[in-house]
Amino acid sequence: MNIRIKLLFSVLIVLSFSMLTNAQTLSKNYKTYIDKYCQLAIKQQAEHGIPASIILAQGLLESSAGESWLAINSNNHFGIKCAEWQGDKVYKDDDTVNECFRKYDNVIDSYEDHSLFIKNRRWYGSLFELAKTDYIGWAHGLKKAGYATDPTYAYKLISIIENYNLHQYDLIQKKADIITSKNKITATPEIKSMGTITAFTNHKVQKNNKVRYVIAAINDTYGSIADEFNIDENRLRDFNDAVPFATLTAGSKVYLQTKKRMASRKFPMHEVKEGESMHSISQDYGILLESLYNLNEMPYTQGAKVAQILKLRR
Predict the structure, then answer these.
(1) What CATH number did the domain enclosing 81 receive?
(2) What are 93-116's pLDDT values in tens digits?
(3) For a disulfide at 199, which of 48, 140, 217, 219, Cβ 3.0-4.6 Å?
(4) What is the domain-level CATH number for residue 251?
(5) Backbone φ and ψ of 289, nearest 5°
């Protein structure tokens, strides 16, 4: 096979999986899985150095977004088999009949074991020399090191990461370190337990468009911030136009009161940039999401388009 044909074949593979995962973006199950486990993946990145995007993509792929037989019957989200395993086991047909798979008490244990499985095997060692934001290098490195037999495994991971914007979670730890450092200048953060996950509180209240807000740190939830400021969680979600199952990303604004109907006078317009949404723009300027749609006479089902000029004031 000559170089030109090989290149065409590679492009076709990427495009085919891109179309596949574009269809999956409509899947409520995928979105629910990401919302449910993104903080756990971020924690694994912080403790073991594996990119959160890679962890989430592998979890989504290996467990069919938490709906596979293994995930349901053994909390095994990564399809790890029984080699060197002394814990509980389940048996299922895979490459051969009646293969042995690891069984966990909970999903947290599955994520932790997955991280240690990669971290403690020398043939994955070179991956840890890559940047935590190099999800493409990690995806190809895992396949090359023998994590999966599927020849298109790396392309599947990359497509999932890019279609679901999972690479945003790879940057959270760095942002959270900066935020925590700033907080420590004025006060020592209170640490409270969230099972095996630690959450930092004691947020500095700031103002944007004359609306009070705080910056979310790693492992923050709407519930933890609501508790800190003695606000009902549903009300806090309403302040931030957040749907019931939405989770927080470290570095994002969390408003403690109702946003305004217009931006401040110095921001009459906004040009939409890559990666922005109507919701993120409403949060950036402290405007009610409904008002942002109404100001621009847009249907609520329509999203922001790159280079679109949005009105922020009447």
Answers:
(1) 1.10.530.10
(2) 877 888 999 999 999 999 999 999
(3) 219
(4) 3.10.350.10
(5) -60, -40
